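Lecture 7 notes. Example A: sequence first, then its structure tokens.
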Amino acid sequence: MNLPNKITLSRVLMIPIFIVFMAVDFGWGIIKIGGVELPIEHLVGAIIFIIASTTDWLDGYLARKNNLVTNMGKFLDPLADKLLVSAAFILLVEMGTAPAWVVIIIISREFAVTGLRLILAGGGEVVAANQLGKIKTVTQILAISFLLLHNIFFEAIGVPFGTIMLYIALLFTIWSGVDYFIKNRKVLVESM
């Protein structure tokens, strides 16, 4: 197993640790900034999420730079991304921070595009993420990060930045999903 794949695997292994910190109250206390309360466990969980998210960029960069792209990496990397983002969004719904309907749309798009990629892979095609998909990913990670941190940096000045980013992420999620299906509609029609 090469270094990029090890980094991707580490992202998968960080997911249960992230979930524990977000879901379990260890009684470590609370940080208060401008009237916003952030449990220390949530701070640790958010840091783990942010570190795990940055490994997505790092493993891809190293794989391309060092010519270490493998089939395992092509499979494991998007799976790790979807598991991490889905876990975070589901936790945000449980925390009452993200509306369930938004999360359902985002996760449904991920399943739909993954299904389309499987159909394409069956035909020997591998489609790399396009610019819209990359923007979608960045906006999702920003939204999740700020919401996990209880929007502590912006709430004090009355700007719900995490919530604003969530709806921007929703927009790019829908847009990139529709774009992906339109560009690959020929394959869908042929597979019916």
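Example B, a different protein, same format:
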Amino acid sequence: MRRIQKAGIKKKNLAVFVSGGGSNFQSIHDACVGGSIHGDVVVLVTNKLGCGGAEYSRDKGIPVLLFPKSKDEANGLSPTDLVAALSLQVKVREIWERQRAGSDVPSLAFGGKGYYGMKVHNAVIASGARYSGPTIHFVDEHYDTGHILAQRVVPVLWNDTAQDLAARVLQEEHRLYVEVVAALCEERVIWREDGVPIIQSKESPNDYS
């Protein structure tokens, strides 16, 4: 394993990407303010200036960047402009969350292009799966194919609706996102020799998940 030097870790500047209500963003920001995350959210990037996440960011005095540029959004940034803007404010470590059912091979059936929001939860319930839950993974050039960094198991109850399941998964998403971002900021993400990322326990450095 390639260990990351943890001595003298500097507080990280974070960029968050949102396009909706931004409840995970709010959890991360609250954890930064409360000291649970060794970092600060210094910029938010969105493709919808009117979304809840952008409104929350403006209320907290966090700069908002619009991406991408389009014919309807002339003030949006091009990819080159976005990278330049972020390089001035943050050390970018991109992670993105997608809900998938479970942590085994069949869970792949509920991830990927076209699976988002209630579509995921409806698919889980229709399949008869007994477990669901959030998956956090690194971003790469493809949709939902980055290395998985963390998962959390959520039971699917016999009488669940998609809305019921979504609410329980979202609660775990908030907690898991904070744990993962904290690990990234504390440089506790270790890369195995086969290229798989794992997280070093803060309380027990010899334990990994």
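Note on Example B: The domain at 12-92 is CATH 3.40.50.170 (Rossmann fold). Residues 1-5, 96-109 have pLDDT under 50 and may be disordered.
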